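Case study 2.
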Amino acid sequence: EEGEADEDEDDDIEEEEEEEEEEEEEEEEEEEEEEEEEEEEEEEQKKKKKKKKKKKKKKKKKKKKKKKKKKKKKKKKKKKKKKRKRKRKRKRKRKKKKKKKKKKKKKKKKKINNNNNNNNNNNRSSSNGRDGSNSSKIIII
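Prediction:
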């Protein structure tokens, strides 16, 4: 009976050891699975982050492009406005110049006419030639 009890005890001990080993293996497997899951999750998170970053970058680029386009348009508009302003200024200047020239011509014509009339009048009425006109009379005393 003692031999049988020893064997039973040995068997029980072996079974307990095997069970403990199996439990340890199971725990190790579970830990490995958890680690793998964590790694996968991390990778997924990284991918998401990268995608988000890329999207953000793209959005930023688009915004920058839009801003640049707007700036260019504004600059073009400003340039056009300036050009029109200059054109109008030149036109006004030319008009003014033309008007001035015309006025001067008219004045000159009037002066010449007046001068002729004065000369004629002076020549007719004046006998002494002391009126300051450029009459060609020579007076001999």
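The chain has a mean pLDDT of 82.
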